[in-house]
Design a protein that fits this description.
Radius of gyration of chain A: 23 Å
CATH superfamily of the largest domain in chain A: Winged helix-like DNA-binding domain superfamily/Winged helix DNA-binding domain
Order of helices and strands of chain A: HHEHHEEHHH
Number of strands of chain A: 3
CATH architecture of the largest domain in chain A: Orthogonal Bundle
CATH class of the largest domain in chain A: Mainly Alpha
CATH topology of the largest domain in chain A: Arc Repressor Mutant, subunit A
Oligomer: homodimer
Largest interface: A-B, 52 and 52 residues
Helix content of chain A: over 70%
Structural class of chain A: mainly alpha
Strand order of the largest sheet of chain A: 1-3-2
Largest sheet of chain A: 3 strands, antiparallel
Strand content of chain A: 5-15%
Number of helices of chain A: 7
Shape of chain A: elongated
Number of domains of chain A: 2
Distance between the termini of chain A: 40 Å
DNA sequence: TACTTTGTTTAGTTTAAACTAAACGTTCAA
DNA sequence: TTGAACGTTTAGTTTAAACTAAACAAAGTA
């Protein structure tokens, strides 16, 4: 293939790897997505081992992460035991999927513990000597909780807007 | 101090540490912010060493990260060589600051390389045998670039809306 | 039944981030 | 001018994530 295209692909894969890394994912995971995304035909595990240059095990685990995020899709071919993978090309869909899934993950557990801390403070019987501290904690924790709740609302609103676009309007105008 | 308040604080600090960790920052950095945020008086380095339970060096480097993100502010007291730190309590301001700073960081360098890859593809002279590949790369890279540009626009819009709120309206109604 | 071909899991290794302890530079006070 | 009180930097260590190699399980094929 044309050298310049090979170079363009290499550069692209490297860029996506860096983005992956920036968001706290393994570099190999980004590289993997980039390779699948730039492949005109569905990719197999062994192809990816060659393309990305990591072990079979690493491809196997990373591809599962990508699938969980909805960034790639497994495509099964009848009479063929290989797994084929395709890239999701609707990036907004990926983002929305991740936002929708967030309740289940570590992130919301953490947010919850802010709420729990606040409840603890509020449930504390007022003691003469620690009353000021209690009031201060309450104020600060409430402020942070409100911020998180607002963030939640922003996200929920964005998702709702998108839902309307996709259901109501599609229904109205029949696509 | 009241045991229950101590426990509430501990729980809060742990929660923020986990959030910090989730976003790819050191856990100690989150703990540090939480401690400062819950302190009614400005915090000094040595206090934080005790409160968070890490070394002076770790506090020093982590506090600098927090400052860079605009999450804490150094407060100098005349006739006192200690540095005092206060927490930023306007979280939207923190978020906006981070969004505004993002051009300078690793993230945008990565986005740029997607654009560069596309340019490489477009600058490739059309060869008979690789023409289809070239067209495919161009299509995929363009789609991704457009997504990134849209994201950029969303962010820019949000920032602009906020600027209007803060300047025009404030001016009109004189706060 | 044994052998291939596939993807997954596991035990151990590598690597990079975050930490500690201690040296250091600076500033002020005595 | 020495020493104490700071915050920062550095050299080395610890720790956790991500990887490799290889064993493995499943499912088909000869």
């Amino acid at each position: 293939m044309d050298d310049q295209l090979v170079e363009a692909k290499r550069h692209f894969v490297e860029g996506i790897s860096r983005i992956s890394n920036f968001w706290g994912f393994p570099k190999a995971m980004g590289a993997l997505f980039a390779v699948i995304y730039l492949s005109p035909t569905p990719s197999t595990l062994d192809e990816m081992v060659v393309e990305v240059g990591v072990s079979k095990g690493a491809v196997s685990t990373n591809i599962r992460s990508l699938e969980r995020l909805g960034m790639v899709h497994k495509k099964l071919v009848v009479g063929d035991r290989k797994d084929y993978y395709l890239a999701e090309t609707d990036f907004w869909k990926i983002v929305k999927g991740i936002l929708r899934e967030r309740e289940k993950n570590e992130f919301d557990k953490a947010l919850q513990s802010v709420g729990e801390s606040l409840e603890l403070v509020e449930a504390t019987p007022a003691h003469e000597e620690s009353q000021q501290t209690q009031a201060f904690y309450k104020e600060r924790m409430t402020a942070l909780k409100q911020f998180f709740d607002s963030l939640d609302n922003v996200v929920a609103t964005l998702l709702a807007i998108d839902d309307i676009k996709n259901s109501v309007l599609k229904g109205l105008f029949n696509r």
